[in-house]
């Protein structure tokens, strides 16, 4: 087998990733190996679990070295609307996942997409997922300001087996504790670690508690469990028909639930519903 110089460089990068498996530079080395072949603009490694805020293993540093406020909002509450988080919690499995694989039918019409995703991720996102067990998933996200092309997705899918295998080998070296935002060490390397407060996953209130807080504060009648479920699916980007299919109820029943939600919370649109959810979380806490 003949190797070109590009192949030799790639093998050196893979060697560096393997060498860093037990070091703080693992995730940075992994991104360097991948970005030789596919351009992306931000990355983060997280652990997902149902009803818990994601725990951060490492993330790409901001250009000015400051804490990313929008990402803190994600960790505080908005993760509950993230299609990658929802899919990993509902169907934990190892593999390469694209936004098209998990995004609901009305995702691009949601306030979450317009007010967070487009501003923070901007164009597209893919995940390498390693299912740790039935509840926990180690997720490595690559975000881009552009849409990934067919070649990009094909290359990343081709890399998935060894990326996920390395993630599995890395797992024993992750502590999943609250830590600091990434900085730069004396050698110019990224110092990896989660954002402040990232270790408080089990203490983070659920969306049901958030809506209860909103209802109580405004003197509204509390939403039922089913109404909360419909509200969150709506905010996540599921159309009325998609919600009906997901919950195995009729289209008209979903419409009735939405009417009750809007009446109880004294709102008239999905954007107002998002505002209530958002203000009860990171901005309104």
UniProtKB/TrEMBL annotation:
Listed name of the protein: Transcriptional regulator, LuxR family
Lineage: Bacteria, Pseudomonadati, Pseudomonadota, Betaproteobacteria, Burkholderiales
Residue span(s) of domain HTH luxR-type: 216-281
Entries under CDD domains matching the protein: LuxR_C_like
GO function term, MF aspect, one: DNA binding
Domain of life, source organism: Bacteria
Biological processes per GO annotation: regulation of DNA-templated transcription
PANTHER family the UniProt entry points to: DNA-BINDING TRANSCRIPTIONAL ACTIVATOR DEVR_DOSR
Keywords carried by this UniProt record: DNA-binding, Transcription, Transcription regulation
Family annotation (InterPro entries): Sig_transdc_resp-reg_C-effctor, Tscrpt_reg_LuxR_C, WH-like_DNA-bd_sf
């Amino acid at each position: 087998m003949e190797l070109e110089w590009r192949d030799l460089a790639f093998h050196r990068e893979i060697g560096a990733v393997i060498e860093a498996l037990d070091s703080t530079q693992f995730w940075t080395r992994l991104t360097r190996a991948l970005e030789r072949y596919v351009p992306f603009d931000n990355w983060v490694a997280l652990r997902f679990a149902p009803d818990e805020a994601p725990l951060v293993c490492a993330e790409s540093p901001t250009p000015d070295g400051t804490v990313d406020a929008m990402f803190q909002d994600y960790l505080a509450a908005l993760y509950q609307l993230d299609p990658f988080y929802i899919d990993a919690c509902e169907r934990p499995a190892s593999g390469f996942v694209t936004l098209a694989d998990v995004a609901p039918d009305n995702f691009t019409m949601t306030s979450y997409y317009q007010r967070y995703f487009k501003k923070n991720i901007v164009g597209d996102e893919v995940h390498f997922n390693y299912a740790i067990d039935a509840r926990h998933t180690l997720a490595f996200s690559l975000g881009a300001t552009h849409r990934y092309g067919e070649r990009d997705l094909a290359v990343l899918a081709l890399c998935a087996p060894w990326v996920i295998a390395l993630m599995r080998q890395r797992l024993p070296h992750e502590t999943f504790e609250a830590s600091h935002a990434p900085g730069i060490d004396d050698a110019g390397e990224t110092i990896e670690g989660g954002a402040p407060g990232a270790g408080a996953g089990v203490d983070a209130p659920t969306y049901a508690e958030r809506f209860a807080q909103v209802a109580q504060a405004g003197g509204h009648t509390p939403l039922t469990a089913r109404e909360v479920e419909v509200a969150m699916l709506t905010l996540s980007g599921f159309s009325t028909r998609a919600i009906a299919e997901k919950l195995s109820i009729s289209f008209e029943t979903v419409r009735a639930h939405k009417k009750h939600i809007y009446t109880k919370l004294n709102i008239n649109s999905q954007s107002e519903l998002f505002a209530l959810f958002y203000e009860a979380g990171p901005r309104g806490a």
